[in-house]
Design goal:
The protein is an alpha+beta fold. The protein folds into three domains: about 200 residues, Sandwich (Jelly Rolls), CATH 2.60.120.260; about 80 residues, Immunoglobulin-like (Sandwich); about 280 residues, Glycosidases (TIM Barrel). Helix content is about 15%, strand content about 30%. It contains six helices and 40 strands. A nine-stranded parallel beta sheet has the order 27-38-37-35-32-31-30-29-28. It has a six-stranded antiparallel beta sheet with strand order 7-3-8-14-11-12, with no helix packed on it. The N terminus is likely disordered. It binds alpha-D-glucopyranuronic acid (GCU). Alpha-D-glucopyranuronic acid binds next to loops.
Length: about 600
């Protein structure tokens, strides 16, 4: 029997101009905080899929594009139509997982892919149900039992769609259209130096919560005294006056309150005995929040991070961040990293380097990365993919970046490991870009005043000097900057005489440096692409970094080789960016040990 999927009327525009308008009248998604701490029914596993490059599943056959490139069907709207699918006979791929590394016929596919599966469910009376999607790169439209439940744009932030009114006892179907077409006005935009892995790349599940439930909370250690934990709890659907408690028994801390008319209550918990979270002592506490019939238990570390002059203070003490950049590439199997084993392997290599820090490039990673960093004691730089030449003068681009910053901060601001929110990477210093990012910095500070705002900047060059004077620096707490002396700029020895002129009295992090090497390729120190050449770059970088004023952290590019369509050198890159200290198959290159020695013998980096 041909299974027909009735798709609802959509009012989105799609067209050659790669614009799309916010889709009117569609339910918005939300982000349920600490959703990974709630009981959930997983929808991970095999889903039927169908590639749909012409969007036939969304629009009528006879539609056309109007003058603005918007797709209109014959009635002039965007009509969902009966379309002919037979999901049951379609191939399957695994969720979570990008589609590119699962099927040869999807390896270079870029476009819309329809996912479908069935699940059996027994709704409990008085409960509300949410469909949780850990990430769908790049845009998603979800339907349950043929009813549209939400849409989302942003390939790396999780979202939750309420399905209470459409889920039913017994058999249910869920259909999710994921479209990873790169957009000129997307975030990121059309060009990046990473693989555009499409699909449901992280866990998918269904959560049931009480009619009034805790959908958001924020708790942090007071910076000034470190003697109390402050924050708020929000209870979705709660009447004013709903009793809320927050308890951290092991810290002898507790607070009670009642919700206001908006379902929110501020809390302050004096703490009698608290082991501060740090890389050396990544102490996590059970934090139990109750509100009416809802109980949510999270595991949290408590610490403070701040800037004092040109120093970064963790728990009031100056710290140097010995780190490395990490892409969300799965060790060994490649494709998107999306399970605890991937994260433990990657952060395990950071620890083996003697590192205490990682820059999660260039987009929010799977939440399991932050959970693992909380547990292992690795400080994190978290970033949204405002990358290279975005269309900074277009209002919708800022709205998209803002939405991703909002969702990223909301998901991770209760994770002790995250200390820096990065708003951009290597963006051209134009008036429009600086205005855009000044707004971004202000927005992040307003969303989370307990952490530091940063960005990875380009630096200006003179014959034998580098100058850090980007106007955006005035809006950042910590200034990140990328340099490739010895790789894109001259020989490794150039670092020996390079001067650095820094126009800000703020902490700096060199957020990228390094060079490429194919693991196992050996030759003379002067032979590019050999492990020896890459190691030479690192050897000459270390003394130079010690000469940079206000340097308080470093994250060389990059921990592990990763797939990128712009890296096609046959026999060397073969579709991978080879600047990894470790190959995608886990082979440590010579440069790994150069950096490890510098981190372990303390010869690079001064905390003050
Ligand atoms: C840039 C960019 C990275 C890129 C790297 C490289 O600085 O930020 O995303 O992969 O350089 O050229 O390898």
């Amino acid at each position: 029997m041909v299974r027909l999927v009735l798709l609802l009327v959509l009012s989105a525009g799609v067209g050659f101009s790669q614009e799309e308008k916010p889709v009117a009248g569609m339910p918005a998604s939300t982000v349920l905080v600490a959703s990974d701490r709630r009981a959930a029914m997983t929808l991970d596993g095999d889903w039927h899929v169908m590639a749909d490059p012409y969007l036939a599943g969304l629009y009528s056959f006879h539609g056309a594009f109007d003058a603005n490139g918007y797709f209109k069907d014959e009635e002039g709207g965007i009509g969902g139509k009966l379309v002919e699918y037979n999901f049951a006979k379609m191939p399957t791929i695994h969720v979570p997982g990008d589609w590119n590394t699962q099927k040869e016929w999807l390896r270079m596919y870029e476009g819309a892919l329809w996912y479908e599966r069935h699940f059996s469910y027994q709704p409990a009376k008085g409960q509300r149900e949410f469909l949780h999607i850990g990430a769908a790169n790049y845009r998603a439209i979800a339907a349950v039992n043929g009813k549209f439940v939400c849409q989302h744009e942003g390939g790396f932030t999780s979202f939750d769609c309420e399905i209470t009114d459409v889920i039913r006892p017994g058999d249910n179907s869920v259909v999710i259209e994921v479209d990873d077409t790169r957009l000129a006005n997307g975030v990121p935009t059309l060009k990046t130096d990473w693989y555009n892995y499409g699909g449901l790349t992280r866990d998918v599940s269904i959560m049931a919560v009480p009619a009034a439930f805790i959908d958001d909370f924020e708790l942090h250690l007071d910076r000034a005294t470190r003697s109390k934990i402050e924050g708020y709890v929000h209870v979705e659907g709660a009447a004013a006056g709903t009793a809320v408690t927050v308890a951290i028994p092991e810290a002898g801390a507790k607070a009670n309150g009642v919700t206001d008319a908006d379902g929110r209550v501020a809390v302050t918990l004096p703490v009698k005995r608290l082991t501060l979270w740090s890389p050396e002592t990544p102490k996590l506490y059970q934090v139990t929040l109750t509100a009416g019939a809802d109980t949510l238990t999270d595991t949290m570390g408590f610490r403070t991070v701040e800037v004092s002059g040109d120093r970064i203070l963790l728990n009031g003490k100056a710290i140097f961040l010995h780190g490395v950049c990490i892409h969300a590439e799965a060790p060994y199997r490649t494709g998107r990293a999306n399970n605890e084993e991937d994260m433990t392997t990657l952060l395990g290599w950071v620890k083996q380097l003697g590192g205490n820090f990682a820059r999660l490039a260039h987009y929010p990673h799977d939440e399991q990365m932050e959970r693992t960093a909380d547990r292992m004691g690795v400080l994190l730089w978290s970033e949204v993919p405002v990358y290279w030449a975005e269309q900074f003068d277009r209002p919708e681009v800022f709205e998209k970046a803002k939405s991703q910053m909002h969702d990223n901060i909301r998901r991770d601001r209760d994770k002790a490991s995250v200390i820096l929110w990065s708003i951009a990477n290597e963006t051209p210093s134009t008036e429009a870009r600086t205005a855009f990012l000044m707004r971004s910095a202000a927005y992040v500070k307003e969303q989370d005043p307990t952490r530091l705002v940063t960005a990875a900047l380009l630096v200006r060059g003179e014959v034998n000097a580098k100058i850090i004077d980007d106007p955006l620096g005035q809006a950042l707490d910590v200034i990140g900057f990328n340099e490739y002396i010895g790789w894109y700029e001259g020989a490794p020895e150039r670092a020996d005489t390079m001067e650095w002129k820094v126009m800000y009295d703020k902490p700096l992090i060199v957020s990228e440096f390094g060079g490429g090497a194919k693991a196992g390729l050996h030759g003379g120190d002067g032979e590019r692409w050999t492990e020896e050449y890459q190691a030479e770059i690192y050897k000459h970088q270390m003394p130079m970094l010690n000469r940079i004023p206000h340097l308080r952290g470093m994250t060389p590019w990059v921990l592990m080789d990763f797939r990128s369509p712009v890296r096609q050198l046959p026999g060397v890159q073969d579709g991978f960016n080879r600047k990894g200290l470790v190959s995608d198959q886990g082979m440590k290159k010579k440069a790994f040990f150069v950096l490890q020695k510098a981190y372990q013998d303390g010869s690079v980096g001064k905390a003050e």
